[in-house]
Amino acid sequence: MASEVYFDNNATTRVLPEVVQAMMPFLTDFYGNPSSIHRFGSEVGQKIAEARAQVAALIGAADPVEVIFTGSGTEGDNAAIRGMVEARPDKRHIVTTQVEHPAVLGPCQHLERKGYRVTWLGVDENGALDLNELRAALTGDTALVSIMWANNETGVIFPIEEIGAIVRAKGIPFHVDAVQAAGKLPFRVKDLPVDLLTLSGHKFYAPKGIGALYVRRGITFSPWMMGGHQERNRRAGTENVASIIGMGKAAAIALDRIAEDSARIAKLRDLLESLLLESCPGSRVNGGRQNRLPNTANISFRYLEGESILVLLDQQGICASTGSACTAGSSEPSHVLRAMKVPADWLQGAVRFSLGRFNTEEEIRHVNQIMPSIVQRLQGLSALGKLGHPKRSEVEPGAPVGTAGRG
Ligand code: PLP
């Protein structure tokens, strides 16, 4: 077994060796600028076109020109929301959900501060949306609906086709943050009532700092990044060539393996959940277990603090993540779990295990051997009268805080 056991694939994934190999020539010999007229540049432009076609194939786009390369999933979400709103200056209303990634929450909160009306749809205790609430929210003033496909913390999947049909019936554009769905769920965006869709390479074994935004042909959209004519005037800036090539390669591999990977990973995830629920009294799964990504398990340990569990897991070489965003000295409970009304005694103790292509059954069994003693140790600290949750500093004095990423 590898020296570290990596269960944080929703935060990021390991870059595949085939992807690195495909990228290398564009970091060395093929350094031409794809916008240059000469052959040395235009050959690179040709390779970008191939990568665009590979990404278009992964998401089932009708035409590769609908794919715009961006610098991240965050950029794609910002460009979609701000670009659509700016192109519709007469509309002043946006609909989104309370459980989006900060890459969507941030621009929506920004627009709210600027005077837009934002409807923040809630979820039930399973993390599911009430589609009647969505129907009731749509008005003639709605510029955009932005709803994620799969939740990065719980893995809960929203019924994108059904949502899109409701939104399209009202003639409103629909943006989907598919950062956690792409490469994990098979879909063909051309057959779906979806107008814009965000992707991020590092969630499917490409490098960090490269993403894509799908914009359906015919959708009016104001570019977010202005300057040069790259990406058909929709995203200025000299292309991150090597990473684009890497994302294309990773997309082709993901498309090839999606069914096989999902089935294998879902089995491992289900095994992990059933073993941990059995071996650790006072544990529960957060989020409905029916409509979920195959790789994500969000498990709460009652009365404990997820951060402390992570520190002790880390000491054993096991990488997972918490459901809570931490700021120095205090840990805020996850906005996703709060929206799901997870009861107070379970709220802080959430740990997200997100599996990937390289995980094995041996690793699952290894974690299950270690976890009960961690839980017992922390429960002991908790019972010693330390009100509620033992803090990270009590299990690892001097531990830095503020570094927990949720992906
Ligand atoms: N949206 C979701 C659902 C995510 O999980 C993430 C990253 O974790 C993002 C957007 C942002 O992507 P990036 O890290 O490429 O900026």
The mean pLDDT is 93
How many helices does DSSP assign? 13
Class inferred from helices and paired strands: alpha/beta
What is the CATH superfamily of the largest domain? Type I PLP-dependent aspartate aminotransferase-like (Major domain)
Sequence of strands across the biggest β-sheet: 2-8-7-6-5-3-4
Sheet-strand content, in percent, reads 5-15%
Number of domains: 2
Percent range for helical residues?
A: 25-40%
For this structure, what is the CATH class of the largest domain?
A: Alpha Beta
CATH topology of the largest domain: the name is Aspartate Aminotransferase, domain 2
Quickly give the CATH architecture of the largest domain.
Answer: 3-Layer(aba) Sandwich
Q: First CA to last CA: what distance?
A: 25 Å
**Element string (H = helix, E = strand):** EHHEHEHEHEHEEEHHEEHEEEEHHEHH
pLDDT < 50 runs, ≥5 residues: 397-405
Give a short account of the largest sheet.
7 strands, mixed
Inertia-based shape: globular
Tell me the radius of gyration: 22 Å
How would you describe what is shown here?
By secondary structure, the protein is α/β, with parallel strands linked by helices. The protein has 2 domains: 5-11 and 259-394, Aspartate Aminotransferase, domain 1, CATH 3.90.1150; 17-254, 3-Layer(aba) Sandwich (Aspartate Aminotransferase, domain 2). The protein contains 13 helices and 15 strands. The chain has helices at 17-23, 39-59, 73-86, 102-113, 131-137, 160-169, 230-233, 241-279, 306-315, 335-339, 344-347, 361-383, 392-395, and strands spanning 5-6, 67-70, 93-97, 117-121, 142-148, 174-177, 196-200, 211-215, 283-285, 296-301, 318-319, 321-322, 326-327, 330-331, 350-354. The protein has a 7-stranded mixed β-sheet with strand order 2-8-7-6-5-3-4, with helices on both faces. Helix 2 (39-59) runs parallel beside helix 8 (241-279). The longest helix is centred in the middle third of the chain and has 39 residues, at 241-279. Mean pLDDT is 93; it is low at 397-405. The site of pyridoxal-5'-phosphate has 14 residues, from helix 3.
